[in-house]
Amino acid sequence: MTKNVPVHNDPISPDAVPDQIRVRRAEARADYQTESVYAVIDAGLVAHVGTIRAGLPVVIPMFCVRDGDTLLLHGAPATGVIRRGQEGIDVCVTMTLLDGLVLARSSFHHSMNYRSVVVIGTAEVLTDHDEKDRALDLFVERLMPGRQAELRPTTKKEVQGTGVLRLSLANASTKSRTGPPIDDEEDYDLDVWAGVVPMHTVYEAPTDDPRLRATVPVPDKVTDLVGGATGGVTG
Q1: Which residue from 208, 214, 180 is spatially nearest to 194, judged by alpha carbons?
Q2: Are 49 and 58 in contact (CB under 8 A)?
Q3: DSSP letters along 155-196, please?
Q4: Distance set, CA 27 to CA 14, 19, 21, 32, 61 (Å)
Q5: Please, where are the H alpha helices in the chain?
Q6: The CATH number of the domain covering residues in 27-180
Q7: 46-55: buried (b, 16+ CB within 10 Å) or exposed (e) per residue?
Q8: What residue ranges do the domains of the chain occupy?
């Protein structure tokens, strides 16, 4: 297991940022600090993983969870990215959270408020049974904290039937936009509404599995989610 070494503890000089992860467009919105990278990852559930397959770029969505200074990616063992990752595979991983629609007084200045992260590195496939078993627990806990303790133990066959990639977060950057629209100065006098429409994820009332025994209640931790929200696009 990779040791938990921070990405960057102290403010990092723009000159010290590796070219691989340097943000060149709207560089003022970039952030390379550990806590910023972790915050975006911890608020999301899906990472888009880019690789090269047969000379062509391929991007697939994968369920993810942060484990210290590494990112774990969940998939079936037969998934191409996991099959090709047996000896390590170069990947570019991105995550984006939408926080609002930014409506300006001109079409040119319309935008979105967002938080995003890009991670570049070599991902490795977990092969050790105990490491994979622990990773699967982390995935379940990411979906619902405390859920794993309510479930039957994961079987050896189930562990073998799941693929997990691990990627260091040492080479990562974030980029974000916040705030109101930025219009041309002469446009502020126009009688055109401008502002931000916030966006967030909303959990709705849970529905029972049709085969659920009538005596089994909905756990408090599930009902507590209703009315709650996390950062990101409404879903």
Answers
A1: 180
A2: no
A3: PHHHHHT-EEEEEESSSEEEEEE-SS----GGGTTSS---EE
A4: 9, 13, 11, 11, 26
A5: 34-43, 80-83, 129-143, 156-160, 220-223
A6: 2.30.110.10
A7: ebebbbeeee
A8: 27-180
Question: How does residue 1 score in pLDDT terms, banded at 50, 70 and 90?
Answer: very low
Q: pTM for this structure? A: 0.85
Portion of the chain with pLDDT greater than 70, in percent: 82
For residue 7, the SS3 value is coil
CB-based contact 160:125 (threshold 8 Å):
no
Identify the bridge partners of residue 31 per DSSP, sorted by sequence position. Answer: 174
Contact at 8 Å (CB) between 111 and 102? yes
Query: Which residues have C-beta within 8 Å of that of residue 201, sequence separation ≥ 6?
Result: 229, 230, 231, 232, 233, 234, 235
Q: Is 89 helix (H, G, I), strand (E, B) or coil?
A: strand
Q: How far is CA 112 from CA 67, 134, 174, in A?
A: 29, 37, 15
Specify the 3-state DSSP secondary structure of 37.
helix
Q: Is the pLDDT of residue 99 over 90?
A: yes
Helix, strand, coil distribution of the chain in percent, nearest 5: 25, 35, 40
Task: Output the six-digit token pair for 217.
Answer: 């209640």
CA distances for 110 relative to 81, 96, 128, 179, 234, angstroms: 36, 18, 49, 12, 19
3: phi > 0 → left, psi -120 to 50 → alpha, else beta; which? beta
